[in-house]
């Protein structure tokens, strides 16, 4: 069963993760569905969110066997690349927690709309993974990126705005997103695609590819403590 709701919403394609009982952990079929949508509707605005306010996504499902987990991780990296390189804008509506692959999806979006209970955590180094190195320096600067990735502390909504992850905390994130979509409808698609292309320097995509290769060999367990 695919655990995402997909609909047409205010002229955009909307994908909402719908497995709150498992904190929207991303199963293989969910990630495959997201990839298909990113490819199929590459010129349209895509809105990512959740049907539950308490959680955006806890990232890849790590309860599956090693081969499936590795495939989910690799497909997620493909989704990140599609998100930053596709012509259409991607908006992530984050009302709850975004962890690991969830925080990566939010980071890969062009615009993040935050609710008051939005919070982020980039976990990786403590589990033997490199997470966020491809995008966080570009978004937030090298020092802040290292702080978030090495300490893996929660970043609450107000702090996310302070460090530049979003422009503001919205009282009603979905209503604000609806107003954004109305404004986007008047934009020139060629200009949008051109801006995205220039903003995505080759260095960013090279870092994404390197992080994807590094994490492809992860065995699913944190390294032994010295």
Automatic annotation (TrEMBL):
<comment type="similarity">
    <text>Belongs to the enoyl-CoA hydratase/isomerase family.</text>
</comment>
<protein>
    <submittedName>
        <fullName>Enoyl-CoA hydratase/carnithine racemase</fullName>
    </submittedName>
</protein>
<dbReference type="InterPro" id="IPR001753">
    <property type="entry name" value="Enoyl-CoA_hydra/iso"/>
</dbReference>
<dbReference type="Pfam" id="PF00378">
    <property type="entry name" value="ECH_1"/>
</dbReference>
<dbReference type="InterPro" id="IPR029045">
    <property type="entry name" value="ClpP/crotonase-like_dom_sf"/>
</dbReference>
<dbReference type="GO" id="GO:0003824">
    <property type="term" value="F:catalytic activity"/>
</dbReference>
<dbReference type="InterPro" id="IPR018376">
    <property type="entry name" value="Enoyl-CoA_hyd/isom_CS"/>
</dbReference>
């Amino acid at each position: 069963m695919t655990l995402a709701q997909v609909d047409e919403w205010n002229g955009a394609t909307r994908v909402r993760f719908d497995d709150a009982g498992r904190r929207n952990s991303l199963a293989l079929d969910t990630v495959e569905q997201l990839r298909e949508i990113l490819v199929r509707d590459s010129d349209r605005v895509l809105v990512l969110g959740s049907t539950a306010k308490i959680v955006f996504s806890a990232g890849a499902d790590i309860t599956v066997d090693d081969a499936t987990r590795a495939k989910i991780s690799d497909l997620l990296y493909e989704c990140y690349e599609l998100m930053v390189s596709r012509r259409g804008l991607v908006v992530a509506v984050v009302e709850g927690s975004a962890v690991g692959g969830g925080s990566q999806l939010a980071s890969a979006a062009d615009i993040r709309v935050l609710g008051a209970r939005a919070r982020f955590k980039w976990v990786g180094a403590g589990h033997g993974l490199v997470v966020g190195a491809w995008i966080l320096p570009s978004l937030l600067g090298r020092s802040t990126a290292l702080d978030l990735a090495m300490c893996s502390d929660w970043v609450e909504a107000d702090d996310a705005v302070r460090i530049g992850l979003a422009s503001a905390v919205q009282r009603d994130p979905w209503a604000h997103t609806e107003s954004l979509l109305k404004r986007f409808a008047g934009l020139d698609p060629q200009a949008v695609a051109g801006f995205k292309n220039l903003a995505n320097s080759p260095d960013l995509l090279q870092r994404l590819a390197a992080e994807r290769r590094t994490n492809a060999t992860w065995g699913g367990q944190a390294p032994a403590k010295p």
